[in-house]
Write a structure and sequence with these properties.
CATH architecture of the largest domain: 3-Layer(aba) Sandwich
Radius of gyration: 23 Å
Structural class: alpha/beta
Number of domains: 3
Number of helices: 9
Largest sheet: 8 strands, mixed
Number of strands: 12
Shape: globular
CATH superfamily of the largest domain: Periplasmic binding protein-like II
Length: 300
């Protein structure tokens, strides 16, 4: 039995589609299907029920899939131990990051990481929080950068920074004339929010409830950039995290970004990794470097 065959089984069980599973494993569909049949022959059980339209796991297939995930996860621990022994800042590192942070933080930190840790290859994966947590638990990712806190988890948290929010609004809005605003200024205002699944949505909703604002019921955005365009069309207001605010803006820009007075609303950004990871020193070195690369404006 080969570990690679177990990875094929895991992909099929989670994708429920041979073509998608093969693409995920970077192999052809015939290769994946053939290796899975060999695994079934070796074990003497049917793991997958194949039809023309879909794939279903058998009862024994699901049980073996669950065990396979644990095997792959423990294999990753062995690899980490060996890597740490030889050179902790060398080799591959799979880092997951949420979509509301990735486009704005990565351009700031990746050049510095590459320059400082020349032998470390950082592979980037962008998913929503619930997917990242699952992949971290199963050993598919080593390190996450996301918004904290995360409820009910068994991972180690490492705080990076607190990111303030600004009010994003159209330049024609009367609040755009203010240099600073308070939470009371958005009382009874409907806000544009992200769709379900984004942790940023929950953070903004908490702020809205505190301020007496509410969510607009006609629209939910798939990304911060979509929200920005909606505000630019004067379709509403939203809260924008500091890193997503353009470095240079003028009063002529359609979208204005107004700072909040103290106490400013913010979100905690940090790292998450498995408890007692043998690469903990690596993660801490990365965290310390990130803190030196960030603009002072986002520390709060």
């Amino acid at each position: 039995m080969k570990l690679r065959d177990l990875e094929y089984l895991i992909a099929v069980a989670e994708e429920r589609h041979f073509h998608k599973a093969a693409a995920r494993c970077f192999v052809s569909q015939p290769t994946l299907s053939g290796q899975l049949r060999k695994l079934e022959e070796e074990l003497g059980v049917l793991l997958v029920e194949r039809t023309n339209r879909h794939v279903e796991m058998t009862e024994v297939g699901l049980a073996i899939y669950e065990q396979a995930r644990r095997v792959i996860s423990e294999t990753k621990v062995i690899e980490d131990i060996a890597q740490t022994y030889h050179d902790p800042m060398n080799g591959d590192l799979k880092m997951g990051i949420i979509p509301t942070i990735a486009p704005y933080l990565l351009p700031i930190i990746m050049p510095g990481l590459s320059e400082k840790f020349t032998n470390l290859k950082v592979w980037l994966y962008e998913y929503q929080t619930h997917v990242l947590l699952e992949k971290l638990e199963h050993g598919e990712l080593d390190l996450l950068i996301l918004a904290l806190p995360i409820e009910k988890h068994n991972f180690t948290e490492y705080d990076l920074f607190r990111e303030p929010f600004r009010l994003a609004l159209h330049r024609k809005n009367k609040l755009a004339k203010k240099k600073q605003i308070s939470l009371g200024d958005i009382n009874n205002i409907e806000m544009l929010l992200l769709e379900e699944g984004h942790c940023l949505r929950g953070h903004v909703l908490d702020i809205c409830h505190l301020a007496g604002a509410s969510e607009g019921t006609q629209f939910q955005a798939t990304s911060l950039e979509t929200l920005r365009h909606m505000v630019g069309e004067n379709m509403g207001l939203t809260l924008m995290p500091e890193l997503a605010v353009p470095k240079k803006t003028t009063k002529k820009d359609a979208v204005q970004y107004i700072e909040f007075s103290d106490p400013k609303p913010y979100r905690r950004i940090g790292m998450l990794y498995r408890n007692n990871s043998y690469r903990e020193d690596v993660f801490k070195n990365i965290g310390e470097l990130i803190s030196t690369l960030l603009p002072v404006s986002i520390f709060y």
